[in-house]
């Protein structure tokens, strides 16, 4: 089955594109370019043959749109099977450019939705927001920690992309400090975690093999957002973030007007609450 026409042509029409129209004159030029590119690459025989060497679930595909469909593209209802398929595809995307390009196309509707929302509050509007999102998407997909976050992949990627495109630089400028690239200090909650339900919890510490501070920071931002949603107190968030600065405890304590021991107790309390809110426990 070839669903290419229903995917590409319908999307291009919604963007105001028709054959002969300059893509730069459409509503979202970057989205138009990506769909035109997809129109070109998705049916190429060598790309289809390559996709069929990945040993993804299901019968061999005849068009790359089938890979989109199996990974959950345009699905109204969340599917465990589609999520698992996208998880396997995302693992390939770390090293395979075609797989990475397919993942970009899979989450493009979500990227566009975020860009339209963000476009209301940034200079350049939705077109500029989309450019920023697409640039961030490649970085996030290439570095996505699929071993630690194998579920709800599309939603998690979109959250990471939005954070990287719009939040990180703003916070860096506001606080005038960057997250340290020493990924052993991202969050001192433990070295390995298991959820109390028995399944693997999403990463809190950055894995030792990670060497991308941008991806590490996006991961940390998602962790902190989850903690806030689950009720982390502002004072605990401050304590956790203090641990990521280059200030030693005596200096931090002096600035806070408390004793070093009180500061250590505050940080210990914050870490304990974070563990509880994440539903994880440190393995022995």
Can you lay out the helices and strands and say which pair or pack?
Elements: H1 4-14, H2 29-41, H3 45-51, H4 64-70, H5 80-93, H6 97-119, H7 125-143, H8 153-175, E1 193-195, H9 213-229, H10 234-242, H11 249-256, H12 260-278, E2 280-282
Antiparallel strand pairs: 1-2
Helix pairs in contact: 1-2, 4-6, 5-6, 6-7, 6-8, 7-8, 8-9, 10-12, 11-12
Largest β-sheet summary: 2 strands, antiparallel
Estimated helix fraction: 55-70%
Number of helices: 12
Instruction: Report the β-strand fraction as a percent range.
Output: under 5%
- What is the mean predicted local confidence, pLDDT? 77
Total beta-strand segments: 2
Outline the low-pLDDT stretches.
171-215
What does this structure look like?
The chain has 284 residues and is an all-alpha fold. The protein folds into 2 domains: 1-175, no CATH class; 177-284, no CATH class. It is 60% helix and 2% strand. The chain is built from 12 helices and 2 strands, in the order ααααααααβααααβ. The protein has helices at residues 4-14, 29-41, 45-51, 64-70, 80-93, 97-119, 125-143, 153-175, 213-229, 234-242, 249-256, 260-278, and strands spanning 193-195, 280-282. It has a two-stranded antiparallel ribbon with strand order 1-2. Helix 8 (153-175) packs across helix 9 (213-229). The N and C termini lie far apart (51 Å). Mean pLDDT is 77; it is low at 171-215.
């Amino acid at each position: 089955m070839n669903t290419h026409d229903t995917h590409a042509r319908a999307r291009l029409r919604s963007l105001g594109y028709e054959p002969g129209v300059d893509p730069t004159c459409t509503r979202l030029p970057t989205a138009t370019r990506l769909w035109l590119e997809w129109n070109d690459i998705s049916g190429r025989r060598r790309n289809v043959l390559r996709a069929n060497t990945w040993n993804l679930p299901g019968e061999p595909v005849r068009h790359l749109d089938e890979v989109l469909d199996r990974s959950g593209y345009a699905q109204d209802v969340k599917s465990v099977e589609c999520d698992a398929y996208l998880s396997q595809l995302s693992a390939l995307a770390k090293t395979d450019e075609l797989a990475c390009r397919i993942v970009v196309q899979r989450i493009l509707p979500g990227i566009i939705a975020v860009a339209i929302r963000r476009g209301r509050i940034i200079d350049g509007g939705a077109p500029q927001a989309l450019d920023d999102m697409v640039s961030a998407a490649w970085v996030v997909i290439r570095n996505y920690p699929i071993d630690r976050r194998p579920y709800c992949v599309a939603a998690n990627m979109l959250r990471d992309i939005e954070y990287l495109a719009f939040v990180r630089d703003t916070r860096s400028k506001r606080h005038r400090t960057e997250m340290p690239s020493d990924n052993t200090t991202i969050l001192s909650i433990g070295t390995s975690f298991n959820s109390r339900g028995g399944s693997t919890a999403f990463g809190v510490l950055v894995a030792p093999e990670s060497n991308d501070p941008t991806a590490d920071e996006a991961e940390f931002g998602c962790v902190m957002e989850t903690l806030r949603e689950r009720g982390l107190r502002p004072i605990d968030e401050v304590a956790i973030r203090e641990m990521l600065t280059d200030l030693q405890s005596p200096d931090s304590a002096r600035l806070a007007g408390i004793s070093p021991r009180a500061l250590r107790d505050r940080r210990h309390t914050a870490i304990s609450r974070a563990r509880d809110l994440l539903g994880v426990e440190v393995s022995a």
